[in-house]
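User: I'll paste a sequence; please echo it back and then give the predicted structure.

Assistant: Echoing your sequence first, then the prediction.
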Amino acid sequence: MRGSTIGFLTVAVGLVVAYVTAAVHAAEHPRPIRIGVLTSSWGPSPQTVGLREGLLALGYHEDQEFVLGIRFTQGDLTTLPAAARELVQYGVDLIFASQLFSAKAAQMATTRIPIVFAGGAGHGDPVEMGLVQSFARPGGNITGVTDLDLELGPKRLEVFREIIPGLRRALYLYDLNDPYAIALASTYRNAAHRLGIEVVEQGVRTQVAAKSALAQMQKGDVDGLHQCPPMGVLW
């Protein structure tokens, strides 16, 4: 289940392909496999685009062997559970979750339909979130990949200081709906103390609140902005 930042999406697509291949060959009366995609993004993301392109590149024909039903929640994590239930009611054969919190919503919606997640770039720990039992044996109906980069938080701050000479105060803008972003705040806090940097923490829940927080910043308040990926409320 552990994947590199570069290759985790490839592995996730491979898991989906494995299911599609098995389902196509096992069906007595072949029909397109319905793949539900659940994401908090505002539109096509690297995960959703990569999934479609990966299937096409491997020779699968859209609308003949697979169809994609995508639910975008446009940065609103609170509507993910309802979107997941819609996919279940639609009768999808598999759910592809582009973030771990999307996978959590899908998990609450079904214990029967297979779920594949691609939780890279700082989406959290699937074991701590209760998605899987362990990395070696996920159990249940969920599997996927994640890069688990909590430990990379301090390194990011170090690189940030190198990019901005004289960095003294950095704004950390993060989503209060995202457990990973909250956990990451602690690692930044500890790293900042060691590096002699003050981290100004600003947690928000909506796009409006994020824009308001940025608008209230005055010149000289901070030397740089660091946002937690994926900061869905900003796009």
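Residues 85 and 109 are 5 Å apart (CA to CA). Residues 1-8, 230-235 have pLDDT under 50 and may be disordered.
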